[in-house]
Amino acid sequence: MTSHETKARKSWLLSFGDLVTLLICFFIMTLVLNKGDVKQVHQWIDGQIERSYQKMEQALAAEQLSGVSLSRDNEGILITINTPDAFESAKTQPSATLSLLLKRIAQQLPQLPIIQVPQTYPQLIQSMQAAGLSWHTDIIVEGHTDNDAISANSPLRNNWQLSALRAQAVMMMLQQESQLAPEGFTVAGKGEFAPLIDNNTPEHKAQNRRIQIRINAALLKSTPKG
Fold first, then answer.
1. In which element (H, E) is residue 212 found?
2. Separation CA 105–CA 63 (nearest Å)
3. What are phi and psi of 167, to 5 degrees?
4. Mean pLDDT in each 10-residue stretch from start to end of the chain (226 residues)?
5. Burial profile 125-159: b = 16 or more Cβ within 10 angstroms, e = fewer
6. Helical pair 122-130 and 113-120, crossing angle rounded to 10 deg
7. Are 208 and 139 in contact (CB under 8 A)?
8. Please, which residues bridge with residue 197 across strands?
9. Residue 192 and residue 156: Cα distance in Å, rounded?
10. Rounded to an integer, what distance in angstroms lies between the CA atom of residue 69 and that of residue 82?
11. Which residue in 125, 109, 128 sits closest to 117, CA to CA?
12. SS3 state at 107
């Protein structure tokens, strides 16, 4: 057997293994939904989030994006963008540097397992709907500032408004570049009220000026129509 034939055979086995894994997940989740075992449902969702985290981790590592970090907590996946030239002072539109970072991140969003659940498990989604549940993914864009006061000459009222408008601009770019449904996005302006560190030095203030993108998924009770 030639090396080409060996490689092709291994590739076929890997694809078959992925298919078997998906089928096993489908049957397990169908049984779980029928029995109403909430704990196992949450474990399955957590597994999808973990797979998404690992995929995003690999993508960001390959891109080697400066000023972007990734973490995971009980609320899902958290992407933090902290680059000094993300925005001009007191401005709300992303800089060229931030725009490039957002485009790279947006390209990865549609590939995440939690985003692809409806396409990967169509019959499972039908079972969820029959059980009165719906699959919901949420991409929350948070804007954060330091505690420097807004200039009296600025049309902005305060840091809260500044952070909310920055988050909105980032959210719109992510949605446009990823082509994901707009209803899957949310914005939050945190202003100066969720600092990572005390705003007592210019370096600390620079750390607190950031954009955070939180990605999560959940099964929600379907709202009856009419």
1. strand 210-221
2. 9
3. -60, -40
4. 48 47 50 59 89 96 94 96 94 96 97 95 86 91 97 93 98 98 97 97 97 94 68
5. bebbeebebebebebbbbbbbbeeebeeeeebeeb
6. 80
7. no
8. none
9. 15
10. 8
11. 125
12. helix
- Torsions phi, psi for 142 (to 5 deg): -110, 135
Q: Give the type of residue at 179.
A: Q
Residues 6+ apart with CB under 8 A from 36: 131
Q: Which residues, 6+ apart, have CB-to-CB distance to 175 below 8 Å?
A: 182, 185
- How does DSSP classify residue 155? S
The contacts of residue 144 (CB under 8 Å, 6+ apart) are: 163, 190, 191, 192, 194, 195, 208, 209, 210, 211, 212
Q: Whole-structure pTM over 0.90, yes or no?
A: no
Place of tokens 């999560």: 216
